[in-house]
Amino acid sequence: MEQLPAPRTVVQLPDGTHAYIDPNALPAPQTSGPQVVHIHHAPPDRTIQRVALGSGVGAGAVAAGVYFGPLLVGVLTAMAANLALLALIAAVCAWGVVTVVKSVGGTDGKAAATNLSKARRRR
Questions:
Q1: In whole angstroms, what is the distance from residue 89 CA to residue 39 CA?
Q2: What is the pLDDT of residues 9-40, one digit of tens each?
Q3: Of 26, 28, 21, nearest in space to 7 by CA
């Protein structure tokens, strides 16, 4: 009767692929000191997701939060930038109107500009 081949073990290689390897051919594990884990090899922090899943929120809600969270930050940032630009344009227009009224209007224009300036300060 033929002899069966030696048992083999499935091992995951560093590149993620799997291979059959004879267990006797594997090197002995090294136990010299603590293993150093570099920061770029550390798994991502999923504390918020674990808390959400532990509190009974479904995985779909966690996935939606992971997807829409950064999207929401981007939208709010864009809105804030637009509002800042509009505020700048409004300030420049107001300054331009006051300057034109002062220079063109004579005494009535200067009085109107003064009233406009006072009204702006009261806000």
A1: 46
A2: 777 777 878 777 776 776 676 666 666 655 56
A3: 21
The rounded distance, in Å, linking the Cα atoms of 57 and 74 is 25
CA–CA separation, 54 and 50 (whole Å): 6
C-alpha to C-alpha distance for 49 and 66, rounded to whole angstroms: 8
pTM confidence score: 0.39
Name residues whose C-beta falls within 8 Å of residue 102's C-beta, 6 or more positions apart in sequence. Answer: 109, 110, 113
d(CA 34, CA 36): 6
What is the Cα–Cα distance from 7 to 26, expressed in whole angstroms? 13
- Residue 107 is encoded by which pair of tokens? 């005494």
